[in-house]
Design brief:
By secondary structure, the chain is an alpha+beta fold. It is built from 27 helices and 16 strands. It has a four-stranded mixed beta sheet with strand order 12-1-14-13. The chain has a two-stranded antiparallel sheet with strand order 2-7. The protein has a two-stranded antiparallel ribbon with strand order 3-4. The two termini are about 40 Å apart.
Length: about 550
């Protein structure tokens, strides 16, 4: 057993209202610059729909992720080392700008500078890439609220896969595409920061890497040579090419914020409070074997088997042995992500069949069941009605299974049944009715399990949704080593860190750049001060801290 820690995310799709606040704030923070106009590290897709880039889930075309060779070993779907070298200067398996969309702005001067006259001025769209007039035909969420209509639904690769699979009675699964009959839901997407990332394995220059301390996948901009093999290798198409710098860029999981204990920008600004962040401990020695599971439908259970129980004394001892800081182990024990994934088992991975072991999981939507039942005059929160209606979703279970469990309907149905049981049981509790323990028992849970899951999904506070250990505390011992007088050459007698004049801690580069009483300053306090400043309710509260 080799224990590693991973910062992971869970999104509750029942709460997403498709406001795109997460996308806009991420855009303003990370990709609001030249060369990245078409890039959305975070985007919100309408399902059913084609997604962004268009039909990115069609891996027969885009060749992303992993597959098994004839010996049952993992290999990149895009080809091995010799194929990569042969196509390194010309990689034909890449989405074009039309698959993403050509970004545009408007000629606003036509409005502001137009002379008085009988005609109404028009601000025509202009390409942000070429600067020339253009016709708007596609965007990052063209299917928003079924904007693409039945044609867009039919172009969804997951709809095609669901229709191709035959049920036990040999009847083809159908997704209703009539506008008035289709139920849509929103699917926010970021980089999955996978345990077995195909983008990292695809990179010829070694610029893509996965941080061992928290599992975040990043791009070393100095080493990137712009081969774009990572774009092909990523099956979620969440690695982008900056056509100005010639470098690859991707979601960083807002690691500068995580390092001071703050959630990602998309999580912080989410209107629906649907995102959860926390630590998951996993056995690194089991990742390859789990990703190599022959049956695609077994990949979900295989990945669950990789995760470790942070409350298990043996796991805790192994984690300490492997250098996991104590506060990270405690954060894993309180992790909302681990609870939703492994304890309550209501969160599911996105496309486990890509064999990348994704670490952004989703609670599937239950809302259409309730609304459909209420519309027929039945009690939409009654457990008996809910359990019976789960198999009659307008978006069939088969479609949800194609998204989250490689076509296996069982885990999707089980997750929705637990959510239905929670709704029914907690309604009785909140209305003062006698508690019915038979409802939790139907889904293998206790009344206390149901109440704990309800608190996490419905009324959890900020500190319960985001359990993020800071990098400074986790690395405190190493940082404190710098407090040894001879620990840094700059602090040698007569060195720049030993200036005799100035206030305590003053150095050649300003306050806190020197030493105090002959010892260099440790910056752990600065991390916490930064967090307090950003989380204080008002200025006076911040000053009191």
């Amino acid at each position: 057993m080799r224990v590693l820690a991973q910062i992971a995310m869970v999104m509750n799709l029942d709460k997403c209202i498709g406001c795109h606040t997460c996308s806009v704030t991420c855009k303003q923070t990370w990709t609001n610059r030249s060369g990245m106009e078409y890039v959305w590290f975070n985007n919100v897709e309408t399902r059913p729909g084609q997604g962004y880039p268009r039909r990115y889930e069609d891996q027969e075309k885009w060749r992303g992720g992993w597959e098994l060779n004839r010996r049952g070993a993992l290999k990149l779907k895009s080809g091995g080392r010799f194929h990569a070298l042969a196509t390194i200067f010309s990689n034909p398996v890449l989405p074009e700008i039309k698959d993403y969309y050509e970004p545009w702005t408007y000629e606003y001067k036509n409005l502001t500078d137009a002379p008085l006259g009988d005609d109404y001025p028009v601000a025509e769209p202009r390409s942000l890439i070429t600067g020339k007039p253009m016709k708007i035909e596609w965007s990052s969420n063209w299917d928003d609220n079924l904007g693409g209509g039945a044609e867009g639904v039919a172009a969804d690769p997951m709809v095609a896969k669901a229709q191709a699979r035959e049920t036990a009675d040999r009847a083809a699964v159908q997704v209703k595409a009539a506008f008035e009959q289709t139920f849509m839901f929103y699917l926010p997407r970021i980089c999955e920061h996978c345990l077995n990332p195909a983008c990292v394995a695809s990179c010829p220059s070694g610029a893509m890497y996965k941080r061992t301390e928290d599992g975040i996948v990043l791009v070393d901009q100095d080493r990137c040579r712009g081969w774009r093999k990572c774009v092909t290798g990523c099956p979620y198409k969440k690695v982008y090419f900056n056509h100005r710098t010639g470098k690859a860029e991707k979601c960083t999981l807002c690691y500068p914020r995580l390092e001071v204990g703050l959630p990602t920008v998309c999580s912080e600004t989410c209107v629906g409070r649907l995102r959860y962040l926390g630590v998951v401990l996993y056995d690194a020695d089991k990742v390859t074997a789990a990703a190599s599971t022959p049956d695609e439908k077994a990949l979900y259970e295989a990945q669950l088997g990789v995760f470790l129980d942070p409350a298990d004394p043996e796991v805790r001892r192994a984690a300490e042995r492997d250098g996991i800081p104590h506060d990270w182990i405690e954060a894993a024990r309180r992790s909302p992500v681990y609870a939703l994934i492994s304890t309550y088992r209501v969160a599911l991975p996105l496309h486990p069949e890509y064999r990348t072991m994704p670490m952004v999981w989703y609670v599937p939507p239950l809302s259409p069941v309730v609304e459909a039942l209420t519309g027929t005059g039945h009690d939409g929160e009654d457990a008996g009605n809910l359990f019976g209606a789960i198999d009659t979703l307008r978006i069939p279970l088969e479609y949800l299974a194609e998204l989250f469990t490689a076509g296996d309907v069982g885990p999707v149905r089980a997750a929705l049944e637990r959510l239905a049981a929670m709704r029914s049981y907690m309604r009785g509790v909140n209305l003062g009715d006698p508690a019915d323990p038979s409802v939790p028992a139907r889904v293998g849970m206790t009344p206390q399990d149901i109440e704990d899951m309800y608190r996490l999904l419905a009324v959890a506070k900020y500190e319960e949704r985001y359990v993020i250990p800071t990098a400074a505390v986790g690395d405190a011992r190493r940082l404190e080593e710098s407090a040894v007088p001879d620990g840094c050459g700059l602090d040698a007698p007569g060195g720049p860190g030993m200036l005799p004049s100035g206030p305590p801690g003053a150095g050649p580069f300003g306050d806190d750049s020197g030493t105090y009483q002959g010892l260099p300053l440790v910056t752990i306090e600065n991390f916490h001060a930064s967090r307090r400043r950003q989380t204080a309710d008002d200025v006076s509260a911040e000053e009191e801290l």
